[in-house]
Amino acid sequence: MLKASGAYVFRPNGSFPIRSDRQESFAVLSGPVLDEVHQQLNPWISQITRIFKGKEHAEVEFTVGPIPVDDNIGKELITQFTTSMKTNKTFYTDSNGRDFIKRIRDFRTDWDLQVNQPIAGNYYPVNLGIYVQDSNTELSVLVDRSVGVSSLVDGQVELMLHRRLIHDDTRGVGEALNETVCIAGSCEGLTIQGKLYLKIDPIGEGAKWRRTVGQELYSPLLLAFTEQDGDNLSNFQSSTFSGIDSSYSFPNNTALLTLQELYSGKILLRLAHLYEIEEDKDYSAMASVELLKLFPNKKIRKVTEMSLSANQERAEMEKKRLAWKVEGSTKETKVVRGGPVDPEKLVVELAPMEIRTFFIEFASLQTVPEAENQAAT
User: Domain named Glycosyl hydrolase family 38 C-terminal: which ranges (predicted)?
Assistant: First the structure.
């Protein structure tokens, strides 16, 4: 028996465009910082498309909800971006925000796919985004939250924005995916708001934008404020601060995923390479992070590489690695990885898509004297 769409099951009975029963209203706003187009499709769907001056991408802010279910029909709302690109059934979606996986509509590389659900069978979850390309152009769409995406028509990208359903899919929840907010005894469906980011690039040029803006979305700047009296701002000792050596630039193809103090004098450091092999002609190369310049005011006593989850030393983990019994060729594909960390130079190498985790112990929490610090670097 076919199950209805619900918390776990996605099984739509078709795609139906939402048409307004009146002429859509929109407003165009222009200013020195950005330009915006405000659109109100109906009482529960609106969007703002904005372009910031100096930016090369468009930002689409959507507001959806409460989705009406007075007709006793659940709805799963998507948005589509349509181009004339010849994408040959192919699109790319990220895997947990890291590498992009090639997807081919109605096809699987490991088995002969019997297409029973042409919509749901071609949907994939993303945390970073989706892109399509032809022989000349790439269209990239980044997201600010995990959503389902697909490309059901060549040259088209679609993203799931909101769902409100009235039937349980009998997968254990025991209730329909019909979330509501109740205020003063009055209940209505959820209203959600989010942003999408779009950019068109020449073929092979989109990776820099996807990785750079994707990292900005994942790790936005943290604003900090002070209670200092405005009349006494002159007493504020320093308006700027950098924890790393002022002459050092963190590699553009690298991200600092984790910096956590475990206890006094010991930290957990996790570094990641942002690019895949051959993803970008400039940044899909070995990256190096200089720990002495990352912690210029600390004296590093010991660096220990750990497993990814930091629950054991990497050397011990390698000893426990399972030796699989295989049929056919036992030849393994050579994997490029960064080398051991030299205890004197303290430089961490990162190969494309590599993540490395370290425990770093400092000799003391006191500032290293300037002369000693210069000698160390």
Answer: 4-171
